[in-house]
Amino acid sequence: MLADANPLVLSAMSEIFDKDPRFSLVATSATAEGFLGTVMRVPVQVGIIDWNLPALGGAKLIEVLRDQANAPRLVVYADDSGDVPRKAMSAGAAGFAPRSSAVDGLLDTCLAVASGKMVFPFLDVRGLQTDPIEQLSRRERTMLEALSKGLTNKELSKELEISTNTVKFHLSNLYEKLSVKNRAQAIAFYYANRAAKGDFSLEE
């Protein structure tokens, strides 16, 4: 089950989990209370929640469910600013997936949590010194290359065979990883890297 106050994120995540045969999406909610009400009535194995869910908040929701016999194992999907991962772990969450990471990371975290593992990130300073391009998922690299051709969100949606909401979701992650604010800056980043590396390619 998914719970996020942002309808764009909720819609994009719903589509991603719906299309992945490894998962069965039970329900979604925009509030902590809605999530709580559903998982108390319907069997849910893994729940993905936003840390700032209205109105209870992620920490309180985790604490409430912690004492329930058949409660789902919870993955917090949020910005990894400050000490949110540590707070999520202290509250009793089973995992944490940063919004800045590739969607594949969230899926892998959910699978690991479903199998009984605890999954929390750590800061590897070596990663701060690597090329941002290397941190992009294959889908994000493809999207960056398509962006450089001047494709609109609608055209990206058609070319990549995903909804426009999912395009926006991937673009948001892409911008954050490249430390840019919009598509113009992302395109400039793409050409700057290609020029710097000579025979630059986004393909692996």
TrEMBL record:
Coiled coil: none annotated. The keyword Transcription applies. Pfam families: GerE, Response_reg. Residues 129-194 form the HTH luxR-type domain. InterPro entries: CheY-like_superfamily, Sig_transdc_resp-reg_C-effctor, Sig_transdc_resp-reg_receiver, Tscrpt_reg_LuxR_C, WalR-like, WH-like_DNA-bd_sf. Keywords: DNA-binding, Phosphoprotein, Transcription, Transcription regulation. Signal peptide: none annotated. Residues 1-114 form the Response regulatory domain. The keyword Transmembrane does not apply. Gene3D superfamilies: 3.40.50.2300, Winged helix-like DNA-binding domain superfamily/Winged helix DNA-binding domain. The modification 4-aspartylphosphate is found at residue 50. This is Response regulator transcription factor.
